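QA checklist item 7 of 12: single-chain prediction sanity check.
[x] sequence parsed
[x] length recorded as 378
[x] structure emitted
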Amino acid sequence: MSKEIPFYKPSIDDKELSEVKSVLDFTSKSKVLELETEIQEYLGCAHVISTYNVTAALHLALSAMNLKRADKVLMSVNSFPSLPEVVRHFDAEPIFIDITSDGFNIDLNKLEEYLEENNSKKLRAIMVTFVAGEIPDLNRLYKLKEKYDVTIIEDASNTLGAIYDDKLVGNLGSDMTVFSMNPSTGKSTVSNAGFITTNNDNLASQARLLRTHAINSSFDSFGNLDYIYDVIDIGHKYDMSDLDAAFNQAQFYKTNDFIDRRHEIAELYIKELSEVKHVVLPSFSEDHLFTQFIVKISKNRDGFARALKEEGISTALTYIPLHLLSYYKQKYKLKITAYGNALNTYGQILSLPMYPSLSNEDVLYICDTIKSISKKWI
């Protein structure tokens, strides 16, 4: 008898309920400020600017650096659509770079080649995605930042708690780092939150101003605007509510526990599936957060995914390369073969369920189902 195992579901207990209740009872001060302060202290960065979701954080980051029409922003072709989307809202141009042949992140060799051949004043930023919580060579990336004088925005959406060179991601050498409190790229059914971290005072000040209509005034604890206010720019409505902050504060407290649990699940997947035909597994590393568990199916990936779905197991593609999506393919007249590594990788990748509330029993059911399907696969 098949089970129903979603691709992702949140891990919730009494901690979230207690934090949310404190807001509804009006017994707490600003949960938004509390959450920002706690994340700032955790990461050791100078500034944290919260938003109601990670796409808002990405758009706000570009607003803070004053991105303009026809500016160019480089990014991996293997990114979630939110990255080029926010760039296009400025009528700026996303430029795609291929990924490595043996991984999921941007190919820094190809990135550097592009920079050498196309260095111009219109080239404003590089947005670097850490796919599945795996981190590229940031030291090399920061050297490119200095050499070509470009802004680095790290899309660390699913990488809160990751360590690089003994420091936490979010307090390294980028201009801004963007995080999400929801590791799923789907629509959140409970709550969502994003935030920008930066050590740049000017970018932080501009992001805070633009976050709430560019109103140069104060708000009380109930969100009421002060008696006198002024608007000094064109802003957004991207601020986080106290209810969202309360829920995500409880989630934030579990960051290290969530990382430990995902490591346990990853080790169990690798142990159970290591000898399975047609399935290529990622290597285990303590530095890899495994916010997604991405395998490669060597034959007929789509059929394999359908077979899993028939047994109640949901999967996903992390990610469909941007140049295969209708809007970008048609607007920029991109050939399917333009990004060979991303195309080859995309034909095989399959993301399995990975979240802290996933039980060992469910993981074993997924593994047993994969083994059963694999035996029948030609």
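[x] summary fact logged: The first strand starts at residue 47 and ends at 51.
[ ] second reviewer sign-off
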